[in-house]
Amino acid sequence: MSNFMPMLYAFWDSDITYSFRKSRVAVISALVLLAMFLTAIFAPSLAPQNPFDIAELDLFDSELPPFWVEGGSTAYLLGTDTQARDVLSSIMHGMRISLLVGFASVILAAVMGVALGLLGGFLGGIVDAVLMRIADVLLSFPPILVALLINGILRGALPSSAQAESALIVLILSIGLTNWVQYARTVRGSTMVERRKEYIEAARTLGTGKLAIMMKHILPNVLGPVLVIATINLGMAVLTEATLSFLGVGMPPTQPSLGTLIQIGNEFLFSGIWWVVVFPAAALAILVLAVNLLGDWLRDALNPKLR
């Protein structure tokens, strides 16, 4: 406990924390993200209704507008859809899946990209050449097309009876295997710089193995840019998931994400039930905007030229 307070004070007084406290955009973005994360995590307890429990649905309450519109009810603040599911509850549960896919795919892409970038940058030669040519090929296509291709291959390899249950895993793999290139190229460049420094030569002289040098010496020095990329890619991953779900190759209606809710609501947009699609779309836009603003701040805060 005696060491905790000095560490906490040092963290509070650090350059990054000071930059965060002085940036209103970063503080507001962080608070919005925290509120959305907590809402998603505790959705089963906070949501007014379980939109996937048929016993809680009453078809007489279907297609109700938001509570401030004539005909609305305070029991359903953002209205209901054609199946009497509370839109607010659907959004809260949908955010859980969108954020889960986003975080899991970013972790997969970061682990894969950092590992391949370290190998390519440190070993060089044929290993580096092969990895970078694969990266160049992937960068030649729009990410959404690569994700669609991987998604189609994975779904085609599964029996039709298992596709709905495995939709979450397929989405995570599709997005994660699409976004590793940025991490790999960034880490490769940083690794090529670090491996020529004196402390690496000293470690080699002392007989330290290649794996130990990469993990203990080089990896900690290349994680700064990776953190920035991961923060920004979280928003991209959530958008990619929403796009795939909107196209009908993402989460099924029984496990809807924000993208699935938008896809379902879009079918009723021109029938006057605008709230079914507008509010999920607004939640998605706010989530991605907050992530991107926080990522922009983190990129500037970690840039020594801007300090």
UniProtKB/TrEMBL annotation:
Q: What is its main location?
A: membrane
What membrane topology does the UniProt entry give? Multi-pass membrane protein
Keyword tags: Cell membrane, Membrane, Plasmid, Transmembrane, Transmembrane helix, Transport
Say if the entry is tagged with keyword Transport: yes
Transmembrane stretches, start-end: 25-47, 97-122, 134-154, 166-187, 222-248, 268-295
Q: Which residues form the ABC transmembrane type-1 domain?
A: 95-295
Q: Where in the cell is it found?
A: Cell membrane
**Could you confirm whether the keyword DNA-binding appears in this record?**
no
Q: Looking at the Swiss-Prot or TrEMBL record, what is one Pfam family this protein matches? A: BPD_transp_1
* PANTHER family xref list: ABC TRANSPORTER PERMEASE PROTEIN, OLIGOPEPTIDE TRANSPORT SYSTEM PERMEASE PROTEIN APPC
Q: Which family does it belong to?
A: Belongs to the binding-protein-dependent transport system permease family.
What is the official name of this protein in its record?
Answer: Dipeptide transport system permease protein DppC
Q: Which organism is it from?
A: Sulfitobacter dubius
